[in-house]
Structure formats: C-alpha cells, structure tokens
C-alpha cells in the first residue's frame, strides 16, 4: 500500500467524515465529550492500521464503527457508569436496533451545528466548539488561529461542553419559529471565523489566514448542502466566495494591502466569482418573486457588483449605493453607514461622503476603518494636514500588518505631495 | 430537568432599591400571575416566590458548631436576588423560552441555572 495514497485517504476522510462521526456518536451517546474523544481515537487508529490493512471500501462506515467501539471501551473503562451510559451501551449491544439511516446522519450534523452555536454559549466558545466538533480542527490549531494558549483554548472547549451537558442544551434543529434567529446565530459564527481569516489581527500573524477563510467556506458549504432552500445561507456562501476570489490580488508581493480600486482584476479567481454570481442570481430570482433578502444576500449582491466590473471605472456605483440603502433599512449599524459612505464618495463626491462619515464619530471613534475612510476622503479633498492625522489614528488602531503597511505608504505619499513646490 | 430562574433586582448607587417598596407593581403582579397560571397549566410549575429586601437577611455560620448570626446580606452588591421560580423543562431551549416570558412578566432581568 502506497503510504502517500493512505495519507491522502485519511486526510480526505477527515474532511468528509469527521463531523458525521462526531454527530452520529453524539446522538447515540448523548455526550459531546465521549463523541469527540472516540472520533479522535478512531482517526488515530486509521493512521495506525490503514497503511498495513489497506483503505477500507467505505472509510466513513469503518470510522463510525471504530469510533463506536472506542466509545463503548471508554464507558466500560470508567468505573462510574451513570444510567445514560448504561442505556447507551444496551442500545449499542442490542442487535435488534437497526443502524442509523444515512439521511438521519446528515440531520445529525445539522443538530450538532445548532448545539455548538447555541446562544447560551459565549461567542468565543461557539467559534471554538464549531471548529473542533464540526471542522475537526485540533485544539492546538484553534488556539493558534485565535492567538491564545493551547491550555486556555482547551479549557474554553471543556467548559462549553460541560455547560451543554449540565444545562442540557438540546441536540436538535430548532423548531420552525426559532429557526431563523438561531440560523443567523450559526451564520454569525461562520462569518466571524471567515473575517478573522480575511483580516487577521496581530503583529506576528500573516495578514490573511487562508486556513480560516477556507474552513469557514467549507463549513458554510456544508450548511448550504443541508439547508439548500435558505436564502441567507446562500447569501453568506456567495459573500465569502466573492471575497475569497480577490484574496491573491488583495495583498501585494511586499505584504501590503491593495485597495479594490488598485487591484489587478486579472488575478481574481474566475471560478469562485462565477460560483458566487450564480448564487447571487439565484437569490435575485427569489427576491423578484417576493422573498425579502437578508443582510448576507445584500452584501453578496454588493460584492457581485464589484466583481462584475472588469475595470474599477466600470463599477456601477449607483447600484452599490442602492444596495447599501436596502441594507441600511434592515441594519442601520454605523459600520453599514460607513461602508455606504465609501460608495457615496464615488457617486456624489468625497465632500458628500465626508459629511456622512463625520456624523459617525461618536460611535466609531475607536474603529480603524472609520479613520482610514476619513483619511482617504480628506486626502481626495486636498486637506492634507487633517488627512495625515486621520491616517495616524487609523495606523494606531489597525491590528493587521498589511493594512498598516498600506496606510503608512498612503500617509507618507501625502507628505511627499505636500513637500512638492507649487 | 429542573431549572432555577432567579430574578435580578437592580439597586441604585448607595444601595437604594430602584423600586422603594421592593415589590412588583400592580401591572407586574398581574403579568406574573398570568405567567404562573400558564406554567401550572403547561406542567412547568414547581415553585416560585418573591423575596423581601436584602437588608432583612440574616447570615448564619454554624460550621464550627457554634452558630453565629450576622445582620444583613452576605454580599454588598448592586444586584440582588429579588425572587425566583423553579421550573420543570425538558431542556435549556424550553427553559430559556419560559425565562424570557418570566423576564417580561416581572419586568426584570432573570438568570437561568440548571439543578444538578
């Protein structure tokens, strides 16, 4: 057996089967801890055995069966056997219980997602649990991604699992009347993971963490497969794809952020853009049929407008502003208003935009993008001194190395312009 | 599965109760009664009660076998337990839904905690 083939098979099985195995075990044993540990042991056993025994014809079934045995072993090992464990063991040992049908296993993954993203858990715990239980990332990998000690991340996950058990956070898809708010909670977790990858913070980190953006997209694809009818799931996936498509053009060779108007549009990923545009068109058709789009769908549509322009000068700014107007109606948060102003600058001029941006000072004075936007508008209005002060503040507040490099260059160019005679 | 739903009573700086009487208003009481009726008819009711102000509390320490009585609440805080429900609920989702109704009815923040 070729070792490279086996490793590839294990990697593929890990990507495709991890969540399925954890979800099936959680259902059977009613305990996330048991499910997680047994799943990890099953994959460790695969690493040990597959090179010698060969790749099983159905890796997923092999892993689930092995994980089930590991879970039973653990329960038998533990002297303390509460009733639930006994019950689970009897269920497992009873040959009359039919194996779980495939469709229900898919439902189990969705149940697991809703459990991990439960609103009674802190946001950081939801993110960590989702990456561990659904994404299959190790505790060490998650700790690295969020720049915390592995022991601290381990504790965070352990505490969350303990709360799920003690407070009996249910393992099920919410009922129809709760589904919409609960699903938006799940999507918020995935968007947060994506954004941390897209604009990574911290002096020692890469400016773009493609491992995190890729994982967020993979998990959103999974939810899309499980809930193909939901517009916001499609919207979030489209949004991520259209942002991810510009990844390589967004950072220069010297590690500097490249603004969208300066990007090499030929370096955008055409396949991702095509997929994103397909999803946006699907949602536009639904909107035309009277289904009101949510925020992710509108954000995806805005990104579709940007990625439809072969040259920045071809951008349909009126359409972008119209979409932001629609977004403001459902989410009038200062950040949305700020982003709308950026589009307004292109349509109505930087002076109109600056008036709108200045009104946000009370709420956004501590936000780097507020100062970066002001700096750019002031620069375009020829107000160099004020622009410089705004760049300074933006640089101070930004945690992203590529953005700091970009803002610093812009600020220093300002100084050069000013130094020129005349 | 049983959950404790604690009613969080807010205090103004200086330890003054926001509501001097310390009890619910007539409107709040009516809402609480209606909520309690619902709990009973849906099978969620275990027990509930409102508490007198924290300065009526007495702390007892008999760990040494010699009971020591101290006047006043155990902790000085801006928030105190104003009352509580004990509810029966299948899982946390059910408990949270009931607690949300409880918060609305008594017009105060509440906290949900599972019993062991």
From TrEMBL, chain A:
InterPro entries registered for this protein in UniProt: DUF6596, RNA_pol_sigma-70_dom, RNA_pol_sigma70_r2, RNA_pol_sigma70_r4_t2, RNA_pol_sigma_r2, RNA_pol_sigma_r3/r4-like, TPR-like_helical_dom_sf, WH-like_DNA-bd_sf
Gene Ontology molecular function: any one: sigma factor activity
Domain RNA polymerase sigma factor 70 region 4 type: 113-164
Keywords per UniProt: Sigma factor, Transcription, Transcription regulation
Domain (DUF6596): residue spans on this chain: 182-282
GO biological process, one term: DNA-templated transcription initiation
UniProt-listed SUPFAM superfamilies: Sigma2 domain of RNA polymerase sigma factors, Sigma3 and sigma4 domains of RNA polymerase sigma factors, TPR-like
Pfam families linked to this entry: DUF6596 (PF20239), Sigma70_r2 (PF04542), Sigma70_r4_2 (PF08281)
RNA polymerase sigma-70 region domain segment(s): 20-80
Classification via NCBIfam families: sigma70-ECF
PANTHER family to which the protein is assigned, alphabetical: BLL6612 PROTEIN (PTHR47756:SF2), BLL6612 PROTEIN-RELATED (PTHR47756)
The family this protein is said to belong to: Belongs to the sigma-70 factor family. ECF subfamily.
The protein's name: Sigma-70 family RNA polymerase sigma factor
Organism expressing this protein natively: Phytoactinopolyspora halotolerans
From TrEMBL, chain B:
InterPro entries for this protein: Dimeric_a/b-barrel (IPR011008), YCII (IPR005545)
Domain of life: Bacteria
Any Pfam family: YCII
Domain YCII-related: 23-111
Family: Belongs to the YciI family.
Protein name: YCII-related domain-containing protein
Organism: Phytoactinopolyspora halotolerans
């Amino acid at each position: 057996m070729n070792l490279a083939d086996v490793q590839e098979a294990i990697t593929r099985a890990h990507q495709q089967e991890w969540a399925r195995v954890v979800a099936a075990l959680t259902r059977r044993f009613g305990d996330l801890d048991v499910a997680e540990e047994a799943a990890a042991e099953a994959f460790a056993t695969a690493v040990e055995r597959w090179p010698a025994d060969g790749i099983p014809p159905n890796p997923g079934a092999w892993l689930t069966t092995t994980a089930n045995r590991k879970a039973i072993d653990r329960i038998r090992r533990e002297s303390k056997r509460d009733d639930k464990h006994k019950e689970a063991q009897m269920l497992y040992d009873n040959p009359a219980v039919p194996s779980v049908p495939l469709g229900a296993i898919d439902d189990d993954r969705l149940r697991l997602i809703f459990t991990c993203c439960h609103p009674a858990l802190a946001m950081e715990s939801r993110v960590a649990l989702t990456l561990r239980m659904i994404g299959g990332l190790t505790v060490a990998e998650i700790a690295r991604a969020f720049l915390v000690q592995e022991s601290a991340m381990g504790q965070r996950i352990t505490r969350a699992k303990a709360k799920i058990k003690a407070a009996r956070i249910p393992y099920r898809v919410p009922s129809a009347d709760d589904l919409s708010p609960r699903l938006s909670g799940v999507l918020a977790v995935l968007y947060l993971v994506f954004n941390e990858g897209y604009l990574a913070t911290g002096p020692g980190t890469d400016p773009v963490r493609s491992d995190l953006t890729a994982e967020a997209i993979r998990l959103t694809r999974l939810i899309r497969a499980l809930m193909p009818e939901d517009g916001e799931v499609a919207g979030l996936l489209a949004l991520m794809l259209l942002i991810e498509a510009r990844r390589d053009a967004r950072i220069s060779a010297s590690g500097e952020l490249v603004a969208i108007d300066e990007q090499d549009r030929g370096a955008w990923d055409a396949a991702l853009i095509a997929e994103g545009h397909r999803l946006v068109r699907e949602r536009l058709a639904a909107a035309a049929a009277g289904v009101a789009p949510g925020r992710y769908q509108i954000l995806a549509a805005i990104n579709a407008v940007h990625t439809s322009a072969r040259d920045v000068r071809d951008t349909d700014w009126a359409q972008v502003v119209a979409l932001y107007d629609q977004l403001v109606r459902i989410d009038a948060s200062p950040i949305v208003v700020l982003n709308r102003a950026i589009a307004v600058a292109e349509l109505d001029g930087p002076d109109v935009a600056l008036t709108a941006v200045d009104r946000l000072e009370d709420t956004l004075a501590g936000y780097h993008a507020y100062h970066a936007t002001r700096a750019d508008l002031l620069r375009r209005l020829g107000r160099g001194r004020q622009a410089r002060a705004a760049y300074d503040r933006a640089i101070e507040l930004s945690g992203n190395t590529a953005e700091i490099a970009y803002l610093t260059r812009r600020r220093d160019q300002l100084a050069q312009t000013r130094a020129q005679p005349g | 599965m049983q959950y404790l739903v604690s009613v969080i009573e807010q205090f103004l700086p200086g330890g003054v109760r926001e509501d001097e009487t310390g009890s619910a208003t007539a409107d709040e009481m009516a809402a609480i009664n209606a909520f309690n009726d619902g709990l009973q008819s849906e099978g969620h009711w275990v027990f509930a009660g409102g508490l007198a102000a924290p300065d009526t509390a007495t702390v007892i320490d008999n760990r040494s076998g010699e009971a020591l009585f101290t006047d006043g609440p155990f902790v000085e805080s801006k928030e105190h337990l104003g009352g509580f429900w004990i509810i029966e609920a299948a899982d946390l989702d059910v408990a949270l839904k009931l607690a949300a109704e409880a918060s609305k009815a008594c017009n105060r923040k509440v906290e949900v905690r599972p019993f062991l």
